[in-house]
Amino acid sequence: MLKFPVPDLMLGSIFELKPNRLKKMGVTLLLMDLDNTLAAYHCPSPSVPLRNWIDSLKKAGIEPFIFSNSHGNKAESFAHVLCVDFINRARKPETKKLTELLKKKGFSPKKTAIIGDQVYTDVLCGKMAGITTIAIRPIDMSNPLYFLRFALEIPFRYAYKRRLRITKKKEKASVKH
Q1: Cα separation, 98 vs 129, whole angstroms
Q2: pLDDT band at 172 (very low <50, low <70, confident <90, very high)
Q3: Does residue 154 sit within a domain?
Q4: d(Cα 135, Cα 116) in Å, to the nearest integer?
Q5: What is the pLDDT of residue 157?
Q6: Residue 2 falls within a domain, yes or no?
Q7: Is residue 1 part of a domain?
C-alpha cells in the first residue's frame, strides 16, 4: 500500500516536543534523526539545551534513540555524550533496520515515534513502518541544496497543516452540538 509522507505532527524544533505530549500519545520510544534535527550538520557535540531535553525525555519514561543515516562517527559520539543508543547508516526511508530495532527492543509501532527534518527519509520511513511521525523545520538552511530539498517537501507539510485545520473545524462543530 502506498504511504504518503504527510507527518502526524509538525513542529518548529525538537524543543517544542514536550515529554508530556509524547506520553499522551502513548510513545515510549522516540527515534531521532541527528543531522539538522538534533544538531546542525557540522556541529561536533550536543548542546546543553539538547542534553537537558534528552534528560527530560528519560525522566518521563521515554527512551530517546538516535536513528541516523550518517556514515561517520558523529552518531556514536552524540549517543555517548547523551547516554542513548544509536544506529547510524539507518538507510531511511528503508524500514529494515527500524523493524529489526523494534523487534530487538520489544517495542510496538504504536508506542514508537520518529522525529526528523526530512519528509522523504524520516517521515516516509516512519509511515512505512506504521509509527508516529513528527517533522520539524531543519536547523540549518544555509546550504542551497538543503533549501531545495525543503522546498520539495512543501506539499506534504501543507497537507499536514490543511488536515490540522479541518480537524479543528470538526472539533469546534462537535462542541457546538
Answers
A1: 8
A2: confident
A3: yes
A4: 5
A5: 76
A6: no
A7: no
14-24, pLDDT tens digit by residue?
A: 999 999 999 99
**pLDDT score of 77:** 96
| Range of the structural domain that residue 21 is part of | 9-176
Stronger pLDDT, 156 or 53, i.e. the higher one:
53
Could you tell me which of 89, 10, 93, 25 has the C-alpha nearest to residue 57? 25
| pLDDT for the residue 78 | 97
Domain count, the chain: 1
Question: What cell was used for 74?
Answer: 558523529
Displacement of CA 99 from its chain's centroid (Å): 16
Distance CA 71, CA 35 (A): 11
- Model confidence over 119-144: pLDDT tens digits? 989 999 999 999 999 999 999 877 66
105 within some domain:
yes
Which CATH number is 67's domain given? 3.40.50.1000
